Description:
Blueprint: E1 17-24, E2 27-33, E3 37-54, E4 57-74, E5 77-88, E6 96-105, E7 111-123, H1 127-130, E8 131-133, E9 138-140, E10 146-157, E11 162-172, E12 174-177, E13 183-186, E14 190-203, E15 206-217, E16 227-239, E17 244-255, E18 262-264, E19 269-271, E20 283-292, E21 295-302, E22 314-316, E23 319-320, E24 325-331
Amino acid sequence: DFYSSFFLDTASTNDTSGYKYLAYRPGLQLKHKGEKISWNVFSSYSLYQLDLRLDSLKSSDSYYRWTSGGEIRFGQFIASAELNLISGDAFNKNDRSLVAGLSWKKSTAFISGISVSSGLSSLSPDWTTSNYISNHFVWSNDFDKEQLSWVYLNLSIWKNRISFFHHFQQADNYCYFNELALPSQLKQQFQLQRVGVKSDLQWKKWRLISNVRYALASHQVIRLPEWAAYVRGSYHTSFFKKALKAEFGAAVHVTQAWKNYAFMPATGALYLQQEVNTGGKPTLDLFVNADIGKATITLMFQRVNAAWGQTGYYIAPGYPVAPSTIKFGLNWPLVN
């Protein structure tokens, strides 16, 4: 029972919380744009002054953030880097991160783009994970900084119509909310890998968009469906001498059945659970988009297969998916 404990006297507390902050962010940026080489470098300094309040508890902190980086473009190549450092006396003091990337693009070639980005960070867990007080939950944790590193690879072919990706992430001291909805820290290293392919193909009046991906985590504190797929097909046509342009289509989304995170309303946190499976059943949507001048009208029949008797589908534990639903939308910009 998550609510069996009562730590506060509700008759004497205001049940109020809030925060305010002031930020000062001066910076400097230099740019150069040439025929062959373009570059820009920047550096900024930010001062944050925080005031936090939770009933009778109050705290004030301040910290400084230093950001420096740059980008250089040479032909089809783009290279970039950014460094962030935190100083001061706040809970996130000595946090740091470094991100770098390199990409190549050429729309006329069969291989139309290659990009690689990588980063390192050492970050404090957020304030709620470290300190919290309420009627049902109280904790004060002295967690170590989370050590994160990642490498993202992307390859695009056929004028960016098809792209492949491989994302690798590694973490030490990862923080999460356990099955008691309490914050915890994993005292071992784990890896997360995601691979997949995306496509956006067109042939005459037909269009097919798809996204298929596979994920593999080395520890169960990370919850993701092992595989997922999304396919959207549509047919484009016009009526009334092309005054009305219409798109008729259908979309299917499906994931492997998996133990999704549960939601704790008292703290606003997602925590681990072992009771309810989510996913595992496809959803089918039918839609029509119509363009009349600058106005776009959308009519969608969501989760058509729910009307065929499909039940028991949850988007999260305790949150069943809505039944078959018809939605209507209008987008009409009033400014030329």
